[in-house]
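so my prof wants the structure for this chain in the tokens format not the other one, which i didnt know existed until like an hour ago. anyway here's the sequence
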Amino acid sequence: MLLAIEQRSSEVALIRAAQDGDRAAFGELYRQYERLVHGILLAQVSYHDAEDLMHDVFVKALEQLSALREPAAFPGWLITIARRLAADHQRGAQSRRLFHWLARPAKYSNAEPLAILRTLQQLPETYRETLILRLVEGMTGPEIAARTGLTPESVRVNLCRGMKILREGLKQR
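here's what i got, hopefully its the right format
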């Protein structure tokens, strides 16, 4: 418990330094949160789009960081930015698809992981994000809980239920 408080205090100091214009501090925040943001994006968009949107999320966060009143709210605030940009991207992609009558599937050298990712992306959001953070981003249950604000018990339940649904979805493929 004491270690968690010290880590949170250190993180708040880092966020405040970044708010004051310290680019190295923001770089450290990027390093600490890149897997979380990537996982959130992967839950909603393709792998390639997630790679592109990563940059956009952190640029937007940097631009708006001074408006963040409570540094302790940074993780949730960053997750919200990622979710909104992914949703905006999806809306734009849907609009573009209206003009493409003959969509051709992309050729991938390793289709199986992409098929699994597509199955993951069809899960309910709660399970989808938690599973992607665990399976794709390699985050541990406690890391997911600390970064997302979920309780460790909620993370465990989401992983268990999500894996059950994922297995069923993969069997149907």
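also thought this was worth mentioning. The chain has two domains: 1-104, 107-173.
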